[in-house]
Amino acid sequence: MSTPSVQVETRGAVALVTLNRPDSANTLNLETAMDLLAAAMTCARNPAVRAVVLTGAGRHFCLGGDLSAMASRGGGVDGYLRELTGYLHSAISHFVRMDAPVIAAVNGTAAGAGVGLVTMADLAVCGASSKFKLAYSGVGLTPDGGTSFLLPRTIGVKRTMELLLLDRALPSSEALEWGLVNSVVEDSQVVDEAVRFAERLAAGPTKAFGKTKRLVAASIAGFESQMVLESETIASQALTPQGTEGIRAFLEKRKPDFSARTDET
């Protein structure tokens, strides 16, 4: 029996949800997206779970989508991405709307949809050496994981566009200053600090927390419809010459050449 790509471990009233593809830097393929949705549903349906910590196994939290899995689909990559993002976005919706507060424990780097998982969390802790990178434009793709909706509301539009268009990495100190994370700790203490947050919240009024979370979600109406638009956009972009070149260049470990591909739609 294969090890699930997302593991759920309960520590008293706290559920520790771990992205478990460390050899692939916890990149998201279809199986991982499906397993993440199953984990979110398990947490949401279990009344004994009063807080959730989301982290990644190994060196990194999550480096976004698995580009090798996308490349292997060839001309069917658009359908694959629609299915993958459908599961991923459903998982995010469950985390956002469940009663239990969700704390992201960011070890190493969060990139692409990994940043989406940070922004959807109610609180976030990262290590001193952690970095955040949107990465989409670097491979000729567009945002998913709710990043185009949640990130501007978290750090502001201009800062979001800086990260999306210039594709620069955001170090932990700036992530704290910009409000992307709530605290920065020593790398070895990330999960322990997040669990401490979670245990404190687990002792609180979970139903009130849940209703508060849903009030905040209602105040930013249009989240789910924006994620549908994200799915359609990244799926169609992956079929373009720019998307194909970006994915291929990343896998071949070279700089992409977008110069001859500016007239496409």
Task: Give a short summary of the structure.
The protein is of the alpha/beta class and 265 residues long. The protein is built from 11 helices and 9 strands.
Tell me the layout of helices and strands.
Layout: E1 6-11, E2 14-19, H1 30-45, E3 51-56, H2 67-72, H3 77-97, E4 102-106, E5 109-111, H4 113-120, E6 123-127, E7 131-133, H5 147-155, H6 157-166, E8 170-171, H7 172-178, E9 183-185, H8 190-202, H9 206-219, H10 223-238, H11 241-251
Parallel strand pairs: 2-3, 3-4, 4-6, 5-7, 6-9
Antiparallel strand pairs: 1-2, 7-8
Helix pairs in contact: 1-3, 3-10, 4-5, 5-6
How would you describe the overall organization of this protein?
The strands form two sheets. A six-stranded mixed beta sheet has the order 1-2-3-4-6-9, sandwiched between helices. The protein has one domain: 2-enoyl-CoA Hydratase, Chain A, domain 1 (Alpha-Beta Complex), CATH 3.90.226.10. The chain is α/β, with parallel strands linked by helices and 265 residues long. The radius of gyration is 18 Å and the shape is globular. Strand 2 (14-19), helix 1 and strand 3 form a beta-alpha-beta unit. Helix 1 (30-45) packs parallel to helix 3, helix 3 (77-97) packs antiparallel against helix 10 (223-238) and helix 4 packs across helix 5 (147-155). It is built from eleven helices and nine strands.
